Amino acid sequence: MVGVAFLLVGIASATARDLPDLTALVENLKPVVVNIQTSKKARGGKQAMPNNPFKNSPFEHFFQPFMDRMPQGEMQTQNLGSGVIIDADGFILTNNHVVEEADEIKVRLVDEREFVAKVIGSDPKSDLALIQIPVKQKLQAAKLGDSDAIKVGAWVVAIGNPFGLEATVTSGIISAKGRAIGNGPYEDFLQTDAAINPGNSGGPLFDLDGNVIGINTAIFSRSGGYMGIGFAIPVNMAKNVVTQLKSSGKVTRGWIGVGIQMVTQELASALGLETARGALVSQVVKSGPAQEAGIKAGDVILKFNGQEIHKMRDLPTIVAATAVGNKVPVAILRDGKEQTVQIKVRELPKEESSAAASKGDADADKTDPLGIKVKALGDNQRRQGRLGDDIKGVVVAKIDPDGAGAKAGLRAGDVIVDVNRQSVESPNDYEQAIDKLGKNRNVLLRVARDGGVLFIAVNLDR
């Protein structure tokens, strides 16, 4: 028993020695982290009681006097977040959603000094914003590190203001890199188990050398609190955004004009690839840079300007970061053979929201003439819809409740098998079928639902 006791003590001591001592690091870093409080004025006005169960009934007039006595005029909402000083002249990096549409932005430093900040520039697509406070003396600024060099398993420290509790320190490790969580087209998040909660948004994620390697921006939570999964924008992405915001107040992104999709293992085998990699071109924008360079639908983009495209979502981020006007080499696979073309990168048009201009990945919030958005039919949807292997089509991923499709009886989760008797086996097929409608205002859909198949007639004038 004595021997066992000594063994346990030895293990505990070794474990303690392996854990990093963060006291000196945190003491040095606290001054570069700030508390951000924003306020926004909203105009009030007399209106009918929202969600009034007695609306349009004899009882409605009983409730209106209460609405009339409610405060009218300006109402104020407040938001709390964090930020990190990245320049001694008072430039602070934070999340766009922390300061977006704010009427006033107050910044509190660790020494309790408060300043009113102005927005230098913001970029909703990356959820980053650059603000500045008026300072007479130089501030301590954080050092920006290299998020590409950080490895999974590396220790990290988050400092911020979760739930308004200023200068709170949490630690953990990098759990994963290159995460996409559906927030936009330019996703390459660092995942960490360092506790991140509401109020941490915009705050820095440090490595053990005190370098900022990420900007904390999101949590995965069913309760609104910490669940061991947080996400940070890689600082290498932020560097490019900050440089542009500082010089012009806006961000310009590259664009080549292609629609892309993921290369599955099945597609890889059919295309002559040993492994599933690259971005499969599903559409080429007319008169766009890619078409002018000779890119065709069915090509697989393997490298862009010397950078490997491991996964489909790598391409939009790399293209977006490429300087507009540059002519760059693009390695593609066509008919089982690799070749290289030169593409001159243009500026991302305002109506596009993806660097690769993919209709399937861009404009995620927009719907088509039927008021729907479709996606490829996967195994999960096939199981959920009790569909046989012979059913092929596209899934209604999003539907406008006021759109023509919804009014005709179409539902989210339905699988569209054909459009006007033209089979659709992919989102690209569906888009082509919709493009052929022209002036035809009547659409006949064959839809798989709950293990059966039915026809739905949609009138686009509805």
Automatic annotation (TrEMBL):
InterPro entries attached to this UniProt entry: PDZ, PDZ_6, PDZ_sf, Pept_S1C_Do, Peptidase_S1_PA, Peptidase_S1C
E.C. number(s) listed in UniProt: 3.4.21.107
Keywords linked to the UniProt accession: Hydrolase, Periplasm, Protease, Repeat, Serine protease, Signal, Stress response
Catalytic activity: Acts on substrates that are at least partially unfolded. The cleavage site P1 residue is normally between a pair of hydrophobic residues, such as Val-|-Val
Uppermost EC category: hydrolase
Region listing for Disordered, in residue ranges: 346-367
One Pfam match: PDZ_6
Domain PDZ: 259-336, 354-426
Chief location category: periplasm
UniProt GO MF annotations: hydrolase activity
Localization (cell): Periplasm
Family annotation (PROSITE patterns): PDZ
Family that this chain belongs to: Belongs to the peptidase S1C family.
PANTHER family cross-referenced by the UniProt entry: PERIPLASMIC SERINE ENDOPROTEASE DEGP-LIKE-RELATED (PTHR22939:SF130), SERINE PROTEASE FAMILY S1C HTRA-RELATED (PTHR22939)
Listed name of the protein: Probable periplasmic serine endoprotease DegP-like
The species this protein was found in: Candidatus Magnetaquiglobus chichijimensis
